[in-house]
Amino acid sequence: MQKVGFIGIGNMGWPMAANVAKAGYPLTVFDTDPQRSEQFVSDQTGDGRSNVNSVSAIHGLASCDVIVTMLPTGKIVSDALTQGGDDSLAARLTKGAIIVDMSSSEPTGTRDLAAKLAKHEVILIDAPVSGGVPRALAGTLSIMIGADDAPALELVTPLLQAMGDRLFITGGLGCGHAMKALNNYVAATCYTATAEAMLIGEKFGLDLTTMVDIMNVSTARNFFTDIVMKDHVIGEKYATGFAVGLLAKDVKIAADLSEAVGLPLPVLQLVTERWALARDTLGGQRDNSEAIVAWKETAER
Ligand code: NAD
Fold first, then answer.
1. What are phi and psi of 28, to 5 degrees?
2. 283 Cβ partners below 8 Å, 6+ apart?
3. Spatial separation of the C-alpha atoms in residues 103 and 140, rounded to whole Å
4. What value does the mean pLDDT of the chain take?
5. Which residue, judged by its Cα, is nearest atom 31 of ligand 1?
């Protein structure tokens, strides 16, 4: 089995890395928050796994065959791998090592990063995910793969199958990241429209729970009516485990992509502005499900 290094043990990285450990891979984790990686190793050891350890510096991953990154942005991924030039992790990895970026990164940046890594004979595959924390825990994520190197993809496929059960090869390098941003644009639009309908309905005297019940058996049904609105919005839990800053970033990636292909379409522009407003009003670390609170406040001003 390949030696796996996992960078970023956050809301998603933790359960994904746990499934890699469960599948038996020799696993080394690294996070800039050392408490997280230490706690992760201690939890895995407590669950009877002896194949997991952590390192306090990224260079400790240099002997790994495959590196998985699950970090907030593509810029952070690129910096983590290439900063330091000849002393960077990319330079220290064995030739032929494979990096799998599972973060939701910018597709054009992914192609730039691949060119930098190629100088060190390191291969990049993009494999962002969808399904959130519950499906990361269950190991049933959807994984959208972009790859130019078929043998490298074949090598990492069993590893990806440890984290997800719906693997899609979307095309060449960057296509996975493009697909992920477009998926999240559509999802963010569903939330935005559902939230606006709820704000208007509530003001007119409709009951919010009844509204969601009706939408769930009608044509407005979507991920948010199904999974999020009752517990997290009406129940005010606001704890889906996906930060509003990250969703705003994803919609902006889709908007940048639309510019790059010469199709700057209007709904995408508006949805990008709405999520930037939610992020700036709430603070980027708050849960994405709380965006309705920011929009309610600004609508009532
Ligand atoms: P998170 O903020 O919970 O986790 C990120 C982790 O990376 C943190 O533990 C942080 O300490 C660590 N980190 C930051 N910079 C680092 C660096 N330079 N080196 C090592 N570690 C570093 O984020 P998340 O919710 O796990 O999301 C990760 C990625 O997955 C993002 O790109 C996000 O858009 C995407 N995503 C998230 C969800 C979700 O539901 N949360 C779903 C699908 C995709």
1. -120, 130
2. 244, 245
3. 16
4. 97
5. 72
